[in-house]
Specification:
The protein is an alpha/beta fold.
C-alpha cells in the first residue's frame, strides 16, 4: 500500500532530499557495468543489487540524521518498453523488474519512514529516447500511449507517485502527465536544459511548463530541473514568470560540461561538492518554493550532504 499518494509531504515548505547520480556512481565509483546506462539491470544479481541498496542507504542516512524527508526515486529511468527490449527483456520480465525496483524502495521506506522523516516512493519514468536529445518527437497522444504501460504498472505497486525525469520536450511531458492522471497517480515532471537554459527541443523552460499545464489542466503536482548545472539555468530562473512557482525541485549535474561533452567524456567530472552546495543555497534563497534537492550526473552522496547542509543553514 502506498503511504503518501493522496498527500505528498514534499508539497509543504520543508526541505526534502532525494538521491544523486545513481548511474554515474555505480559505473565510476563502484565499477559496475550498466548496459545502456540502465540501473535496472543491476538488480538482476545479488552483488550489484547490494551496491544499489547501499547507494540508497547512504543517501537516506543524510536525510534521517538531519530530521528531514527523502524521496526514493526508483532505479527505473531506463525500464520502459523500448529500453527493455535493448536489455533483452520481454514485457513480463520487464514488468517484474519494475515491480522489484519499487519493492526495494518500499522495503527501504519501511525501515526509515517516520513522522519526522517521511519516505516517499517515486516510480521514475525516463524519456523514450536519449535524455540529451529529442530524437523522433512523439505527439502527446503517442507519448501517453507509450508511457502508460510503466505508469499503470507503478499504480499497482506501493509507489506514491511517478516522476518523469530528464524530459527533453513538452509533448512527452504532456503524455506522461496524462498517463499518470488516468492512473490516479501524482506526477512530477523534471525537464533537462542545455547550457543556454533551453530544452533540447528549443523550447524555453517557461514555454514547456506552460504548455504542459495548458494541455493537462495543471495536473502535474510540480516540475523540476535535472541533468544540467546551475550555471546553465540560474539566469532562466532569475528572469522567471508565473510558471516559476511550479518548480519545486533541482537535481543538478556536478559538471558544467554540456550534454555533448558529457556524452563524449571518458572520465567522470564530479566538480566541486562544496561550491555546488553554495549554488543550491543561492538558488534557494531566491526561489523559496524549491524544496526537493538532489543531484544528477557526476554527483554522489558527498554532493547531497553539502547541498543539504548549505540549504539548511540558509533556511
Amino acid at each position: 500500500m502506498s503511504n503518501y499518494r493522496t498527500n505528498l509531504p514534499q508539497l509543504g515548505n520543508k526541505i526534502f532530499l532525494t538521491d544523486s547520480g545513481l548511474e554515474t556512481t555505480l559505473i565510476f565509483h563502484d565499477g559496475l557495468d550498466l548496459p545502456h546506462f540502465a540501473a535496472i539491470d543491476a538488480l538482476r544479481d545479488s552483488d550489484r543489487r547490494s551496491r544499489v541498496e547501499a547507494y540508497y542507504t547512504r543517501h537516506i542516512a543524510i536525510a534521517t540524521s538531519r530530521g528531514i524527508g527523502f524521496i526514493l526515486e526508483s532505479p527505473t529511468w531506463r525500464a520502459s518498453p523500448d529500453w527493455g527490449r535493448r536489455l533483452g527483456l520481454d514485457h513480463a520480465d520487464l514488468a517484474a523488474a519494475n515491480r522489484d525496483a519499487i519493492a526495494m524502495m518500499a522495503a527501504l521506506r519501511r525501515r526509515h519512514d517516520s513522522p519526522q522523516t517521511p519516505m516517499v516512493v517515486s516510480g521514475n519514468v525516463g524519456p523514450r529516447g536519449d535524455g540529451y536529445q529529442v530524437g523522433e518527437l512523439m505527439n502527446p497522444t503517442e507519448a501517453e500511449c507509450y508511457h502508460a504501460w510503466q505508469v499503470d504498472l507503478f499504480a499497482d505497486t506501493e509507489a506514491d507517485m511517478v516522476c518523469g525525469a530528464t524530459i527533453t520536450n513538452s509533448n512527452e511531458a504532456i503524455g506522461i502527465v496524462r498517463a499518470a492522471k488516468s492512473a490516479g497517480m501524482p506526477v512530477a515532471i523534471s525537464f533537462t536544459v542545455e547550457t543556454d537554459g533551453r530544452l533540447p527541443s528549443g523550447e524555453s523552460l517557461g514555454e514547456a511548463i506552460e504548455a504542459v499545464d495548458a494541455a493537462t489542466s495543471s495536473a502535474a503536482a510540480y516540475f523540476m530541473l535535472n541533468c544540467a548545472h546551475p550555471t546553465h539555468f540560474a539566469s532562466t530562473l532569475a528572469a522567471g514568470g508565473a510558471w516559476l512557482d511550479r518548480i519545486r525541485g533541482i537535481r543538478a549535474n556536478a559538471s558544467t560540461r554540456s550534454h555533448d561533452e558529457l556524452n563524449e567524456a571518458p572520465d567522470l567530472d564530479d566538480g566541486d561538492p562544496v561550491r555546488l552546495g553554495e549554488e543550491y543555497s543561492e538558488l534557494r534563497q531566491r526561489h523559496r518554493r524549491i524544496t526537493v534537492l538532489g543531484g544528477c550526473c557526476g554527483t554522489d552522496h558527498r554532493h547531497i550532504e553539502r547541498i543539504c547542509d548549505a540549504c539548511l543553514e540558509a533556511a
